[in-house]
Amino acid sequence: MLQLILKDTVTPCRARMIARGVKAFLDTFVTSDVLFDIELVLTESCNNAALHAYQGLPGELEIKLDIVENEQVGLQVRDWGREFQCPWTLPDNNQESGRGIYIMRQVMHTFDYSRVEDSNVFSFTKKVEPEQWKECI
């Protein structure tokens, strides 16, 4: 297993950049269809931390990436901002936000949220088929 831990300061402007950086690292290992889903989840997670946990102010963010060859990619996104009330159902059509969690749950194989030691922890796994791995592994 290969593990990458990234610690950074997240802001609304930096959220997408952080997700793209992790995606660029993963591009060495998995195909673009897997990357698309992971980038979506990372962008949404980082953006949620910036906008909701830290209310647009700079805040600490940690991303753990676990690559298990020929099996899966695991992600953990952690912030130390305000506690998050994780929606477990799709919001009504008239609501302007709240669909991100639902979308993340649809594109990943597992999804979990927990509040751990004054932090919000989002954990995901994406199963990766043998043909979706690049040869460098």
UniProtKB/TrEMBL annotation:
GO terms for molecular function: protein serine/threonine kinase activity. Pfam families: HATPase_c_2. Residues 14-125 form the Histidine kinase/HSP90-like ATPase domain. Gene3D superfamilies: Histidine kinase-like ATPase, C-terminal domain. It comes from the Bacteria. Signal peptide: none annotated. SUPFAM superfamilies: ATPase domain of HSP90 chaperone/DNA topoisomerase II/histidine kinase. This is Anti-sigma regulatory factor, serine/threonine protein kinase. Keywords: Kinase, Serine/threonine-protein kinase, Transferase.
